[in-house]
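Feature request, filed as a ticket because there's no other form

It would be nice if the structure record came with a short human-readable summary line next to the tokens. Right now we just get the raw output. Example of a typical job, pasted below so the devs can see what we mean:
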Amino acid sequence: MAMYSTWAERKVAAFLQDRVGPNRAGWGGLLQPLADGMKLFAKEEFEPDTKNRFLFFVGPAVAMSTALMTSAVIPWGDKLEIFGRTVYLQATDLDASLLYIFAILSVGVYGIMIGGWASNNKFSLMGAVRAASQMVSYEVAMGLSVIALIMMTGTLSLKEISMQQSGMNWNVFYQPVGFLIFLICAFAETNRTPFDLAECESELIGGYHTEYSSMKMGFYLFAEYANMFISSTIIAVLYFGGYNYPGMQWMVDNVGVNTANVLGIGVLFIKICFFIFFYMWVRWTIPRFRYDQLMNLGWKILIPLSIINIIITGICILAFK
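Raw output as currently delivered:
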């Protein structure tokens, strides 16, 4: 998904800007991501004159690892019955799945910070500092927005949250403000436009990955797309029912568990692809914020708004339950 998100990014950009996009490698340019991957492997490996050579290698590894680790607790579906054996479509069901995800997200900033600092380049260091302050700032608002959802659902398990949204009983209808805050923070956490201050080429050349080349740079680029895919999945699970769809229980009772749940996986991926498209749509539509605007939005608007949302949610719980 991360690899072909790069193809989709260019196709969406071409569509929005009335041009063609990649169309040479394979039908419709579908082999373009493979060609890009081979190109990254074949590029010259460049290392700056740095005393922190080990950390220079660790940076992209941490970024890529944390981007992939969050997928372990995501419920991709309910279950399948295969040869009399029940297979649950989730790697591991932790009671505190949300805490695990936020813990991994907080570690992800180290990959960018270490890489920028170890590059021995002032532009890279400035990009790393920007990324660290931005991600830490928006993690606060993101965590507060989820607290209101936890108060309403009474659980930290992503599986339980998905099961509570059967049919069209989606959390976005009960937590629209929390969803909006979470969505904005997800853009900032993934360093996507208009929150790409950590790598803006007009000011910092390439930001924290200026000194990286070959597959080390590829790891940073793929980590961004992997984070975008995972954040889209988390949004779909928390607020849009995850793998649930209208009539799913009827499908289970009349068609079969396997058919109903395979269809549920497809429904989840449709929701994910919509949010990935939304990420790309915003990137090629809205200009980059100034750094002071970015900080003001996080600390002076989103955090107070999320606290107000928690208070209103608590009042509604006491009044209607």
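Something like this underneath would help us a lot:
The chain has twelve helices and two strands.
The mean pLDDT is 87.
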